[in-house]
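Internal ticket #5521
Category: modeling
Description: The requester needs a full-assembly model to guide mutagenesis choices. All entity lines are attached below as received. Residue total reported by intake: 495.
Assigned to: D.W.
Attached entities:
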Amino acid sequence: MEFVEKACVMTAADMNRVLTRMATQIVENNPDLSNVILVGVRRRGVPLAETLAGKIKEMDDVDVTTGALDITLYRDDLSTVADRPVINKTELPSNITGKNIILVDDVLYTGRTIRAAMDELIDFGRPHRIQLAVLIDRGWRELPIQADYVGKVVTTTEHEIIKVMLPEYDATEQVLLVEQKKV
Amino acid sequence: MPFKHKDLLGIEDLGSEEINLILDTAETFRDINQRQIKKVPTLRGKTVINLFFEASTRTRTSFEIAAKRLSADAINISASTSSVVKGETLIDTALNLQAMAPDAIVIRHPSSGAPHQIAKVVNAAVINAGDGAHEHPTQALLDAWTIRQKKGRIAGLKVAIIGDVLHSRVARSNAHLLTKMGAHVVLAGPRTLLPLGLDKIIPPAAGTIGLAENVEAAIKDADVVMMLRIQMERQSGGFFPTLREYSIHFGLNRRRLEMAKDDVIVLHPGPINRGVEIDSDVVDGPYSLILDQVNNGVAVRMAVLYLLAGGD
């Protein structure tokens, strides 16, 4: 698939600033950080959760537990996609009952990924509370799901795609608004 | 790499990349088997029929647990309680099951090729759980995965397969799989139970396959010793004089095992005839991974069900 770049939504500096602000908000809203687990949704939510944990450590000198969630097996569109998607590992602390979970993902779009993530979390235990942190909220929700911490709200059309690029997976660090090239 | 097959009938049809995909997928399913709630909603609404025309504890239970942990509905049919005893043909049984729209049919049958016949007439994914003396692909996959977990690789390993190779679908599937993955397979057993030219049935692959002079030669410096069950139900041909004599010449005991590499692992597809093809102290000893194999079987079958029955 080829993409046409339409706009740069965030530079690396913007992302850093926004993530610092989100980390601050998380600290403000969660007085007991020892009970918090930052759970990244694979793939790009995972490095974002690590970044947030790093910033909280800098600010408050607290080590927040992190985890990673692969929601493939909980997707609601599995039987309609052509090839079986590759499944990655879910890594969570052994017991999440009573914890304050903060799900972290790069883009909030239809809300279906977060629905799947919540179902999966609940199979691991009964968290006290689940919150949601996303770098970009691009609208077009298909489920009643909202984020507690949002990096930036971006107005998009249905055909546009938000590409969050992180050094862990991409050559650069930025957020782009792109559109599939018409053929 | 996507998995493009409708059915899993044998290892012979798979490439090494596809084998690796199944094993990697099994890796992620292993975690689910260690959770408190050992269930994911992945195959919710799908139906898996276990159609067993031969006795089985491990394989049938393993497939049933695998299906249930993926939230599929599993139905077990054994030949003795089915309309087969009233004279229904295999194809008619299959067509009738097909009419109830299952998503996968797992079949074990005493005749080689039975799953292939069924696969031709049904839309459901057909998974071979052992057909006669032909193939038992999920057993070979779980064996390979057990080896990979312990050794970190399969390529370059010396694997001795010992016993009743002639009647063994496990040996055949393993011979295909291990040579595709680059292992060096050595077969040993009574001459009467070694099929002539098995080394020629296996197409040229990354690894090698050959016959050993005797059991000791096969075990010498082996990384893996895979013992096969003496198939009491298929021994009417007078292949060897007595079980006691078989045990003396071909059984795995501690003395023979000492000839293998220091970090050798011992596999057996089960059920075990203790004191016949393998001594009890080896079965229960530190090199034995026989129960690990059973444990791994569930995740491997979950992977196969996910890859074959996950679509619409």
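Resolution: model delivered.
Comment from assignee: Residues 30-159 of chain A form a domain with the Rossmann fold fold (CATH 3.40.50.2020).
Ticket closed.
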